[in-house]
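From the methods appendix. Each design record in this collection lists the tokenized structure first, followed by the designed amino acid sequence. Records were kept in a plain field format so they could be parsed without special tools. The example shown here is representative of the layout used throughout.

RECORD:
FOLD TOKENS (236 positions):
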């Protein structure tokens, strides 16, 4: 199992033709050594990406890694910011090549193929965002997004994922994700995996959202039922 995951981790972030063609979400399926069907989802936003592996039926979380990426020719170089299997990879760079069509991303030198889920639409929140503040009791509490401890949320046009981690200590705190929609100023998350609690899988959470001066204001009730007003800033 670990060998399969490691191969996927290091292969996935190779680019084809141009960076724009890679943006969005991609999926692939494979079978574990125990015969279980596993799903891999990779989301590419402008400059940031995340790969996650989870059980295709139960949603049980298995693996996550990601960070920054850049393209040169047909080669993408990933700099790892978080890695659930090997913290020693954090801070390291890995480069690989791929070929891309409109619907398929193929790993050069390997049989693994990823099918395109979307190209960054139709959801209105595509991109990488950092938690930058909260509003509590009418008071705005800002967060320094340059610090090593980060909560990042990466969205394609249909997929979302949040990741909490620390680039300095190389600690991974948790992640969750699935599909999302943005309709009539309502942001709805449909959870497909949640590293801290498998019981959250299958839940749908609806929030209000608005973009104010380029910042994403996210309000409603948390998965625990607590009122929240989060502020997210696009990561640059």
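DESIGN:
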């Amino acid at each position: 199992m670990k060998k399969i995951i490691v191969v996927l981790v290091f292969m996935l972030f190779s680019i084809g033709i141009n960076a724009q063609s890679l943006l969005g979400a991609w999926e692939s399926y494979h079978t574990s050594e125990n015969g279980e069907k596993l799903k891999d989802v990779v989301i590419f936003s402008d400059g940031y990406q995340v790969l996650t592996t989870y059980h295709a039926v139960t949603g049980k979380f298995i693996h996550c890694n990601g960070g920054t990426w850049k393209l040169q020719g047909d080669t993408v170089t990933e700099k790892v910011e978080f890695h659930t299997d090997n913290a020693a990879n954090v801070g390291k760079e890995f480069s690989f090549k791929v070929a891309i069509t409109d619907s398929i991303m193929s790993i050069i030198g390997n049989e693994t193929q990823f099918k395109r889920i979307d190209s960054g639409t139709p959801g209105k929140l595509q991109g990488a965002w950092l938690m930058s503040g909260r509003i509590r009791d009418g008071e705005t509490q800002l967060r320094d997004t340059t610090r090593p401890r980060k909560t990042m949320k990466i969205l394609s046009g249909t997929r979302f994922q949040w990741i909490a981690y620390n680039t300095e200590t190389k600690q991974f705190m948790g992640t969750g994700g699935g599909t999302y929609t943005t309709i009539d100023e309502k942001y709805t998350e449909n959870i497909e995996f949640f590293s801290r609690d498998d019981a959250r899988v299958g839940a749908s959470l609806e929030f209000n959202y608005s973009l104010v001066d380029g910042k994403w204001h996210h309000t409603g009730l948390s998965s625990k039922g607590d009122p929240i007003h989060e502020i997210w800033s696009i990561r640059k």
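APPENDIX NOTE: The helical segments are 2-11, 19-22.
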